[in-house]
């Protein structure tokens, strides 16, 4: 196994005995290591290149502080540059849900964790913000998905729209809107159908639903372990239906979290939450600091 990036960087510098300022050569050597580590964390090549260039400009000529080693200093510069790249919204967890009932559209591929995340987010809105939430499944292809949402609703104490077989996603969306209005709900969350791959039918369906409810937030749920694929999925969803933010799931897994860095740099969309497990409270607001620490190892 490789040592982690922090150790590798320190190692490079421990071999150098130069004092004073970081020379261009020192920085170049270290940044080769950074680039390799980023690629290993599944950051895309253009993003890794651009990032390394940014750090190079910042690090060259910086005076070496006496209290820390040059290696530690470069680690800090790299860490700060990552946080800078990852930082999006000031408060990523603050959803635009004033003006009730506020629709939140949940989109993503099948298996990404969309239904689980819908339940987690509903629980969070209810418990942390005191919101009255209604959830509805629009997955007319998989009755099991509708049942799954109903089970989660019971588990977290959030209402779900009664299931009426034979309705189209648009019909269900309209019914959810009506129920949310009549029932005095603050928020209604629509869990759209996922598919294994992006296709026209899926996108058209999401588009039709979007046109009916005019969502305040359209959150894309993607599997953080799929790395660059997650970024491609986000680009496609954003181009076709427009997303307001991303939820990265399975960040409790072994992945290094490189998808987060690429996501921000490539799509320009903020990561709002990260999923950290299967349980209903395993959802956290996105913190750039934590992800940077994880990529650095
Ligand atoms: P959907 O098809 O996109 O709605 O996906 P599901 O919500 O049904 O999730 C698929 C599987 O992933 C389930 O077994 C979930 O428990 C699991 N899952 C969802 N989010 C996370 C997460 O953040 N971490 C882990 N470890 N598992 C997750």
UniProtKB/TrEMBL annotation:
EC number: 3.6.5.4
Protein's GO biological process: SRP-dependent cotranslational protein targeting to membrane
Localization of this protein: Cell inner membrane; Cytoplasm
Span of domain SRP54-type proteins GTP-binding: 270-283
Keyword entries, A-Z: Cytoplasm, GTP-binding, Hydrolase, Nucleotide-binding, Ribonucleoprotein, RNA-binding, Signal recognition particle
Record GO terms (molecular function): 7S RNA binding; GTP binding; GTPase activity
Membrane topology: Peripheral membrane protein
Reaction catalyzed: GTP + H2O = GDP + phosphate + H(+)
Domain of life where this protein originates: Bacteria
Name of the top EC class for this enzyme: hydrolase
Signal peptide span: none
Main location: membrane
Positions of GTP binding: 108-115, 191-195, 249-252
GO cellular component, one term: plasma membrane
Function: Involved in targeting and insertion of nascent membrane proteins into the cytoplasmic membrane. Binds to the hydrophobic signal sequence of the ribosome-nascent chain (RNC) as it emerges from the ribosomes. The SRP-RNC complex is then targeted to the cytoplasmic membrane where it interacts with the SRP receptor FtsY. Interaction with FtsY leads to the transfer of the RNC complex to the Sec translocase for insertion into the membrane, the hydrolysis of GTP by both Ffh and FtsY, and the dissociation of the SRP-FtsY complex into the individual components.
Domain comment, as recorded: Composed of three domains: the N-terminal N domain, which is responsible for interactions with the ribosome, the central G domain, which binds GTP, and the C-terminal M domain, which binds the RNA and the signal sequence of the RNC.
Subunit structure: Part of the signal recognition particle protein translocation system, which is composed of SRP and FtsY. SRP is a ribonucleoprotein composed of Ffh and a 4.5S RNA molecule.
Similarity-based family: Belongs to the GTP-binding SRP family. SRP54 subfamily.
Protein name (record): Signal recognition particle protein
Organism: Ruegeria halocynthiae
Organism classification: Bacteria, Pseudomonadati, Pseudomonadota, Alphaproteobacteria, Rhodobacterales
Protein encoded by which gene: ffh
Residues of the full protein shown: 1 to 297 of 502
């Amino acid at each position: 196994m490789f040592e982690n990036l922090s150790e590798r960087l320190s190692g490079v510098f421990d071999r150098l005995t130069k004092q004073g300022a970081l020379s261009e050569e020192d920085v170049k050597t270290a940044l080769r290591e950074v680039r390799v580590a980023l690629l290993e964390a599944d950051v895309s090549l253009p993003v890794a290149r651009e990032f390394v260039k940014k750090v190079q400009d910042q690090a060259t000529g910086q005076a070496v502080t006496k209290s820390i080693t040059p290696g530690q200093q470069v680690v800090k510069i790299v860490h700060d540059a990552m946080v800078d790249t990852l930082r999006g919204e000031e408060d990523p967890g603050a959803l635009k849900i004033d003006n009730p009932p506020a629709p939140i559209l949940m989109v993503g591929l099948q298996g990404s964790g969309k239904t689980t995340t819908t339940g987690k987010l509903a629980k969070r809105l209810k418990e942390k913000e005191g919101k009255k939430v209604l959830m509805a499944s629009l997955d007319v292809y998989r009755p099991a998905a509708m049942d799954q949402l109903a089970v989660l609703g019971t588990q977290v104490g959030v209402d779900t729209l009664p299931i009426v077989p034979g309705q189209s996603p648009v019909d269900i969306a309209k019914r959810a809107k009506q129920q949310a209005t009549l029932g005095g709900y603050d928020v209604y969350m629509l869990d759209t159908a996922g598919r294994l791959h992006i296709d026209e039918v899926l996108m058209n369906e999401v588009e039709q639903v979007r046109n009916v409810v005019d969502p305040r937030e359209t959150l894309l749920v993607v599997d953080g372990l799929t790395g660059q694929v997650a970024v491609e999925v986000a680009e496609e969803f954003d181009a076709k239906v427009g997303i307001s933010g991303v939820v990265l799931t399975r960040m409790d897994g072994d992945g290094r979290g490189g998808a987060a860095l690429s996501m921000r740099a490539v799509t320009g969309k903020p990561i709002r939450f990260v999923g950290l497990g299967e349980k209903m409270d395993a959802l956290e607001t996105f913190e750039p600091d934590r992800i940077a620490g994880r990529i650095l190892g």
